[in-house]
Amino acid sequence: MIPALYALSALATVLACVVARHRPEHRPIALLLGYGLASDVVRRVIRLGVLAPARAEVAGAPFTGWARIAFHGEVALFVGWMAGVAALAVFVFGRRRPWGVLAVYVVAVAVLAAGYPTFRGELLGKAYLALELAALCTSVGCLLLWFLGDERGKTQHLAAGFIVIAETLMLVGPFRMGIFSAWDLARSILIALYISLVPVEGVAIWRRTL
Prior knowledge:
Blueprint: H1 2-22, H2 27-58, H3 65-92, H4 99-114, H5 121-147, H6 155-172, H7 174-177, H8 183-209
Helix pairs in contact: 1-2, 1-8, 2-3, 3-4, 3-5, 3-6, 5-6, 6-8
């Protein structure tokens, strides 16, 4: 499943970048998808190359040194996707600069880092869930306000809507069952997201070539 996920993520990202070359309003979509792909790869390298060996060595004790730095980096990347989705909704649907989302993201990462080793394991999972809920409330709120308005839907609105829907399914599905224990279902939702985005971006590219 992981190779298919990466392949679809890369395809959706490349297509989004092509669309963004001709439609600047699609750049936030391309940026978020690019971030998602890059952060997934980097986080996997951190987990397998640094955290897994360090965890086996310390036998349950808190990380120290470079392992702790790598752990905080992995946390920041994970939370970054949640913040990115909220920022995307604020920008695309709310038509505002998402500086408030960025500020909340920086504070959240700083609090999680300063609160280590308290924030790890089950408590870290609860913190992730709270942040996901906050990001989703922001995203859905912006989406609903746009939907009730009179602005015409465009490619970026459809793509951003699919992303917000996928995050909603994450919250009511795998994240509700346990943010660390239902990754197969989470990957299935992400695969469905990328499968949905590819034709949207493909049609946008095709229309450009007409």
